Amino acid sequence: MAVTESAPAVPPAARAHTPTTDQGGGYEGILGRQSQRESAARTYARSLPIVPVRARGLTIEGADGRRYLDCLSGAGTLALGHNHPVVLEAVKKVLDSGAPLHVLDLATPVKDAFTSELFATLPGELADDARIQFCGPAGTDAVEAALKLVRTATGRRGLLAFTGAYHGMTAGALAASGGADDVRVTRLPYPQRYRCPFGVGGERGAELSATWTENLLDDPKSGVAAPAGMIVEAVQGEGGVIPAPDDWMRRMRAITADRSIPLVVDEVQTGVGRTGAFWAVEHSGVVPDVMVLSKAIGGSLPLAVIVYRSELDAWEPGAHAGTFRGNQLAMAAGTATLRYVRENKLAERAGTLGARILGRLQGLAAAHPCVGDVRGRGLMIGVEVVDPDAAGPDDSVPPAAPALARAVQQECLARGLIVELGGRHSAVVRLLPPLTLTDEQATAVLDRFADALAAAERAHTPHPPASRRAPAPRTAPRPSH
């Protein structure tokens, strides 16, 4: 039976500016046709019913005539924001040169420039002895390539992955993310300060996670399939913006190295300066065996690669291919983006500005009991929304409040601010602004967010927030490092 869907709700502030035509070609007509024609798997379009027509930097202009501050940035793809001049110039240069746009995996000057710039940003120990594989256009394709690589190199089939992980939507990536059943994938506890899987948090929780992993791998009766690799995010993005403790990352590196298990770090969303280091794994000083890269490395265009130690390069010719692995425009845009971030020290800037934003959000949390936790690294920030009037399982951490988080998101949109939700219960408001964010723009984003948070809280609170009990000390938000 066919499933029908009504057109997405239009924010009241936007509806007043909505153009209409007799042919239904305006804002609402476009959204209506999208809901009728596109699949039920649509995601962002459901919660963000806007029709972008122009964009520059942080700002998107919709077909409704409104301007929005975009703190989604293509799910972290737009390191320099929309249509940055250096990206446009790089793409235009290739187009004007007459160079071929589709070359499979052939060598080209554009590809050579991209590879050279990328290797210049990698951890030195890896770059000195690395190989690169150009994959299909999406990060999930690079994850699949990484899994195939380590299985080929080790001759083993098992995989170690973590609770809360997100590595993509293809079969192998879904299995590593916990979205599909695969007996070869062993799920390990990812450390969290706020919602610790062991109920203790902090350094003790991270230590228990590492000890659990060691015991599982060393127990001949654990039932764990011999692992070909461990895949981990230095900051879980879709999992709720959870930074891995640096000591714990070093422990994972030691555990895998001692057991000859390749360590695969997924930098699809965290890479290219997003967290305050060019690559998030660098915060801990860890050098992985494989890095999975996509999103920002293409400068807003589709590009995905894996970079790995040469000793793992056991593939036969043609063992991993893809028709669109030679995207020349993406490589040119990526080269320009990587160079701009490196030369202008935008990673360092992201770390400094991100710390200030976390501080401001921490102040908001003190005044709003519905904010359970504020966390992140650099310009990868999450605000977990909770119900402070409902006791959590251990009577100290309130349960997540996904309905209230959705209300915050919609109040943000009504004020011209685009944010996304994530986390285990979709109760974490995520901020991923471009690395080019100015101090003034950061203030504007935070002002709109504060106003939206207050409005959503009022609408969902039967009595003034001031009459609520204060949250338990353990839930007091503070920036994660």
UniProtKB/TrEMBL annotation:
Residues 1-30, 456-481 are annotated as: Disordered. It is an enzyme of class 2 (transferase). Pathway: Amine and polyamine biosynthesis; ectoine biosynthesis; L-ectoine from L-aspartate 4-semialdehyde: step 1/3. Residues 467-481 have a biased composition (Low complexity). Its cofactor is pyridoxal 5'-phosphate. NCBIfam families: dat (TIGR00709). This is Diaminobutyrate--2-oxoglutarate transaminase. It comes from Streptomyces wedmorensis.
